[in-house]
Specification:
The chain is mainly alpha-helical and 201 residues long. The protein has a domain at 59-186: Tetracycline Repressor, domain 2 (Orthogonal Bundle). 72% of the residues lie in helices and 0% in strands. The protein has 10 helices and no strands. The protein has helices at residues 11-31, 37-44, 48-54, 58-74, 77-83, 86-106, 108-117, 119-143, 152-165, 172-186. Helix 1 (11-31) packs across helix 2, helix 1 (11-31) crosses helix 4 (58-74) and helix 6 (86-106) packs antiparallel against helix 10 (172-186). The longest helix is centred in the middle third of the chain and has 25 residues, at 119-143.
């Protein structure tokens, strides 16, 4: 059986796989569980036989799409930092995370099973995305636009919280507003001075 995690070496095969995985991500974001392999192949501009040769089962396609999209998102740092100040680059990346999660939600049923059976998949995803946030953070600290006292892991967890409460497609405007609030906290150089009044036990 074809191993979906070993990328093909021939340029044309690699190009077809990239087309399939990009088309799959869009289809899962758009149609959710109703996305069909036939439509994905059509959107990618390849025959259904090409899809089945590379991904004999839907589960393999979902797994490969999830890994592909995670890697693509994590690799976006250089391009964004190359054309934007670090704080604006991070904010733009956060919007791309919303698109990434839309595709992830569309694969949810199959993905849950895959994550249960592969404990390292979740940790690998977390490591890749935390690494991306750290690149933005370090660039922002160097540029003086991101606070030094904010940890990359905390930024990622706060971002996950936004997507948890406003991750549905119809909540996109609210999610973008919440991301602006998150960025306001990340970029305030003087930090929070108000303190927290805790109740007495």
């Amino acid at each position: 059986m074809t191993d979906p995690f070993v990328r093909p070496t021939r340029a044309d095969a690699r190009a077809n796989e990239d087309k399939l995985l990009a088309a799959a991500a869009l289809a899962f974001a758009r149609d959710g569980a109703a996305a069909t392999l036939k439509q994905i192949a059509k959107d990618a501009g390849v025959g259904i036989g090409t899809l089945y040769r590379r991904f004999p089962t839907r589960e393999q396609l979902v797994d490969a799409t999830y890994r592909y999209e995670t890697s693509r998102l994590a690799a976006r740092t250089s391009a964004l930092l190359g054309r934007l100040p670090a704080d604006q680059a991070l904010r733009s990346w956060m919007s791309e995370v919303l698109d990434y999660l839309a595709a992830k939600h569309g694969m949810a049923d199959t993905l849950k099973s895959l994550l249960r059976n592969d404990e390292r998949l979740s940790s690998q995803t977390r490591e890749q995305l935390t690494g991306a946030v750290e690149e933005f953070r370090l660039a922002g600290v160097a540029q003086g636009v991101i606070r030094r006292d904010v940890a990359s892991h905390d930024i990622l967890m706060a971002l996950a919280g936004v997507t948890l409460v406003a991750g549905a497609g119809h909540q996109r405007e609210q999610a973008e507003r919440l991301l602006d609030l998150l960025m306001d906290g990340i970029t305030r150089s003087d930090g929070w001075r108000g303190g927290v009044q805790r109740p007495t036990p």
